[in-house]
Amino acid sequence: MEIGCHASVMGALHGWHRDSFTHDGITHDTYRRGAGPGVVLIHEIPGMTPEAIAFGQELVDHGFTVVMPHLFGEPGEPMGVRNTVSSFVRGCVSREFTALALRRTAPVTRWLAALAGDLHASVGGPGVGAIGMCFTGGFALAMMVDESVVAPVLAQPSAPFPFTPARSRDLGLSPADHDVVVDRVNAGCPVLGLRFEDDPAVGRRFQTLRDELGENFTAVQFPGRKHSTLTLHRQERGVQAVLAFLDDRLR
């Protein structure tokens, strides 16, 4: 159905087609718009904020078919203390997310990978892009278990939450999924990462990515201690790097 005119949700998402997608017993709403190669854009904590939706629209305007899954929070609600805390707690306790576990793939990434495969079947082409941000940043890497994902973008990947040195290095992949991802990267599938250099939420993950993926991991980094490279603390150089990466891989 087309989004109508209900308060903040409908204002921010006007023109997006709302649907739902089910895989392996998990169902989430999705919002789709655009034409061209496919990109799955996964929102960050606290949810599908106006800034995240605006970035999705920018991808649409650039010529992509964008699907935004709604995983938590209220679509269109601005970032605030209440919804940030609520989403953080959900990430810690939900079986879908495994925000605290080491060497484990979040179950929701299987659903996201299936969503990517469904989008690829719909739009065709060499594959689809996947953009994760913050809490969902590493999800784009885990989605590479589906061969349809050929352009993974990790924007400030922050899970598992880096409360310990081991967690700050962890990529959020089970040993089996880690091997699949490394094999795909070694076969020529590059990975793009973005972060602020002093962002504590990312921990030491970029060093792990360099060690594990080698020259097929490209890091785009910005000075400072801010966090949301594509939304709240948007960096134009980062946005342009993402667009160029998607263009190169998907067109």
UniProtKB/TrEMBL annotation:
Keyword Nucleus annotated: no
Limits of the Dienelactone hydrolase domain: 36-228
Protein keywords: Hydrolase
Pfam family name, one: DLH
GO molecular function term, any single one: hydrolase activity
Protein name per Swiss-Prot or TrEMBL: Dienelactone hydrolase
Lineage of producing organism: Bacteria, Bacillati, Actinomycetota, Actinomycetes, Propionibacteriales
